[in-house]
Amino acid sequence: MSQVSELVVIAHLQAKPGQGPELLSLLSDLAAEVLRTEPGTLRYAFLVEPGTDPLRVTVIEGYASRAAADAHNTGVLTNYLPRLLELLDVAPVTVELQPAEMKVSTDDEAAAARLSV
Predict the structure, then answer these.
(1) Which of 34, 33, 27, 28 shows the shortest CA–CA distance to 13?
(2) Rounded mean pLDDT of 32-60?
(3) Which helix (H) or strand (E) holds 15?
(4) Distances (CA, A) of 79 to 23, 33, 76, 96
(5) Average pLDDT over residues 47-54
(6) Which CATH architecture has domain 7-116?
(7) FRET label pair with 110: which of 56, 60, 64, 98, CA 20 to 30 Å apart?
(8) Cross-strand partners of 113
(9) Burial of 35 per CB tally in 10 Å (0-12, 13-18, 19+)
(10) 99: which DSSP letter?
(11) Are 68 and 62 in contact (CB under 8 A)?
(12) What percent of the chain has pLDDT over 90?
């Protein structure tokens, strides 16, 4: 089985009441700097739950490798983290994901594709 190196991080954030606009502004600045300065960052997207106060944001981060994710966590993010945490009502909830490897076989039509990790 080949080694899958891409890493996806999903983070759920909840702003303190009334702090949603400031959180989005800070995240916009962070995303611009991350995408400009971190070549191993493939994706840095934000999704919001509209009409919620406190605002809830889901961050989808994609990295070319574990090393790229580690570089993000010790790089640009550290400049934004203190203010980011001040704007949050609760600690971020994160999960790390890797794509499952898909093997396709024509020998067994009932099980033509199998996922593995």
Answers:
(1) 27
(2) 94
(3) none
(4) 15, 11, 6, 22
(5) 89
(6) 2-Layer Sandwich (3.30)
(7) 98
(8) 104
(9) middle
(10) P
(11) no
(12) 74
pLDDT at 4 over 90: no
> What type of residue sits at position 66?
R
Q: For residues 27 and 91, what is the distance between their CA atoms, to the nearest angstrom?
A: 16
69 class by beta-carbon count within 10 Å (0-12 exposed, 13-18 middle, 19+ buried): buried
What is the average pLDDT value for the chain, to the nearest integer?
89
Cβ 101 vs Cβ 11: under 8 Å: no
Could you tell me the two tokens for 30?
A: 């962070």
DSSP result, 35-98: HHH-TTEEEEEEEE-TT-SS-EEEEEEEESSHHHHHHHHHTHHHHHHHHHHHHBSS--EEEEE-
- The C-alpha atoms of residue 23 and residue 16 are separated, in whole angstroms, by 9
pLDDT of 19 above 70: yes
Domain boundaries, the chain: 7-116
Residue 21 has which token pair? 């606009």
